[in-house]
Structures
1.
Amino acid sequence: QVQLVESGGGSVQPGGSLRLSCAASGRIFSIIAMAWYRQVSGKEREMVAIITPAGSTNYADSVKGRFTISRDNAKNTVYLQMNSLKPEDTAVYYCTIPSTRYWGQGTQVTVSS
């Protein structure tokens, strides 16, 4: 059984920054890909960023150049550094192990002036 626990959400003004963290339980963290998704109420969940075990990354076009996904295998933690935040980035952010049933509980990010 794997548990994913996100933290770091909150409210920020446009142009601000936040860093999300996702701590994973279990011993397989270093050999699995991890991803961040987000969801706006009434819309489908969308992929934001993904990182492979080797550290290769991929991003949604809407966040390229502003968001950075990273991982610390020693801490079983994946991060999402979000800079130059925009109101349209407002959503609940989830971490997940891609193609599995394992999702975190979500953390709210609100970007508003």
2.
Amino acid sequence: VQLQASGGGSVQAGGSLRLSCVASGRTFSRYIMGWFRQAPGKERELVAIANSSGSIYAADSVKGRFTISRDNAKNTVYLQMNSLKPEDTAVYYCAARRYDTYEHWGQGTQVTVSS
């Protein structure tokens, strides 16, 4: 499966963005989808996960502010990001896995939050 992420941009603290990740193929609903992020000089961080039914995990740092969702009919997973903080600045990646390992990755979309 190929993944195409979009929706990044520059916002001020407190603002919102919605990231989208469109997947190719006809088996999207079988994949567990994740959003990751990587800030400069930091390790990649898991942000949120959704199984075929919906959200099953969100990192403590984003709970209450970010929501992962998916539309299987559109082969798309979303990350709604509200109350953004400067520390949310990172490149955000979507990824897909059937089992234990994320096998497929999108190209990344930059999110920049200014104070």
3.
Amino acid sequence: QVQLVEHGGGLVQPGGFLQLSCIASGFDFSSTSMSWFRQAPGKKRQWVSVITSSGGRTIYIDSMEGRFTTARDNAENTVYLYVNNLKPEDTAVYYCHCRLGEKDYWGQGTQVTVSS
């Protein structure tokens, strides 16, 4: 079955850097676009970025472009989200996501807390 497992969350100081990873299984990863979302406390889940199946194109929500970078390694079935200059407002649960046919799949999420 389809599985998405995120890693890399934790407590980070403002201004710091974070690498999140999502390991995928159960589907043709190298043919699938992958997305990252996040959900801050008390807020709706928010789309962050998408990367095409080959990794040749990435798109980010405007407010995050420049601090967020998405990459993938199709040989390792892994998608990454790199975040620099972290801010307290980046505190959220981060999810990786893919859509296969008409169905959405989500990982369990990884908590990122930005605080001094």
